[in-house]
Amino acid sequence: MIPYGRQNITEQDIAAVAQALKGDFLTQGPTILEFEKQFAQYIGCKFAVAVANGTAALHLNALALNVKPGDKVITTPITFAASANCIRYCGGEVVFADIDPKTYLLDINKVEALLKASPKGTYQGIVPVDFAGRAVDLEAFRKLADEYGLWIIQDSCHSPGGYFIDSKGQKQNCGNGNFADLAIFSFHPVKHIATGEGGMITTNDEKLYKKLLELRTHGITRDAAIFQNSPSFAAGQEVPYDSAYPGWYMEMQTLGYNYRFTDFQAALGISQLSRADEGLQRRKQIAKKYNERFSSHSKIEGHSGFVEGHAYHLYVIEVEDRLGLYNALREDQIFAQIHYIPCHLMPYYRQFGWKEGDMPNAENYYKHCISLPMFPTLTEQQQDFVIQKVEAFLNR
Ligand SMILES: *Cc1c(COP(=O)(O)O)cnc(C)c1O
What we know:
The chain is an alpha/beta fold. The chain has 3 domains: 2-218 and 256-274, 3-Layer(aba) Sandwich (Aspartate Aminotransferase, domain 2), CATH 3.40.640; 220-252, no CATH class; 277-394, Aspartate Aminotransferase, domain 1, CATH 3.90.1150.10. The protein has helices at 11-21, 30-43, 54-64, 82-89, 108-116, 138-148, 206-216, 231-235, 263-273, 276-294, 322-331, 347-350, 360-368, 380-394; strands spanning 2-3, 47-51, 72-75, 93-96, 125-127, 151-155, 163-165, 171-173, 182-186, 199-203, 220-221, 251-252, 300-303, 315-319, 334-335, 369-372. A 7-stranded mixed sheet has the order 2-10-9-6-5-3-4, with helices on both faces. The chain has a 3-stranded antiparallel sheet with strand order 13-14-16. A two-stranded parallel ribbon has the order 1-15. Strand 7 (163-165) and strand 8 (171-173) form a beta hairpin. Helix 2 packs parallel to helix 9 (263-273), helix 3 packs across helix 4 and helix 3 (54-64) packs across helix 7. The longest helix is centred in the last third of the chain and has 19 residues, at 276-294. It is globular and about 90 Å long. The relative contact order is 0.17. The mean pLDDT is 97. Pyridoxal-5'-phosphate (PLP) binds at residues 53-55, 79-80, 82-83, 129, 155, 157-158, 186, 188, 199.
């Protein structure tokens, strides 16, 4: 059987986890800090915060940016629902804007049209998604966001190692914090780096970083510099007490969550991260081959292409008879997948008035898209088999 994506766990990974399990900490230990440091280095940002999963990362971002009821936030309908849901967790309103049918990414022109159509202050933020691994041009989004006073959360779950070229010709890594206020990654088994469950938030903003650390663990701080209660209260002394806060003392200052990552997952993450470039290179090879075979095929209406900076979480093709192709591949034990059912047409979002016809490009894309197997351990032989079966179906 050939799935559309799968993790790559090596003996080195297993040894790293076993080693961590023998240590003093199962959670909240030094391995998490080390993973955060190495991940930040890999992405090229200042701060990284490891959390329980990508959805928790999104939720914490929305909290850190103070999303509240009445806020309006723009995102793409072609994404995993969590990109939108994080706004709803905080009571905000999700406003979908259509995709660009060529890149499959949130169309900045559609976003600008929305912003222009309302008085400034109507919208609070944008959640662009590096869908399939293709990097959003965040420089352009930042410019637009600044014009309207918006924050940006970049959903980079598909794009660790991806980048776009900015207007000065510089590579800008996905999630590097140069343009977005916050970015997130997921370490779910189908993503580039797998830790079972897991996620990471990246940023260059120290204030947001500190807020995230607090929100990740119940809103509790151990930083004496910002304690609000008096040292005498903290020490349990009735008389004024002007010495330092006692060693046990901590304060819950805001309502946070337990969205912590664990040390043995971090050990797996570090080990996986050491092979991230290798995995990315293999993904690019696979994409190149799909592209060679499919980009000029007369029955293929659209495809992910072979694009610089693309991290190829997915390689998508668009075909007329998508259902037929999906079923035919399954008969040969090839489990291609569909990414995504448009978010705005999920029953949950329909209750807010979203309906067919609202996002024509996304809806048309959904009718034809199929994601072909794409993961580093896909063998050449397996890929050839997939290509052969796709071609056999299309040429039937
Ligand atoms: C996987 C994914 C998420 C959620 O990550 P989890 O770790 O599964 O919670 C969010 N957004 C996108 C685009 C994803 O692919």
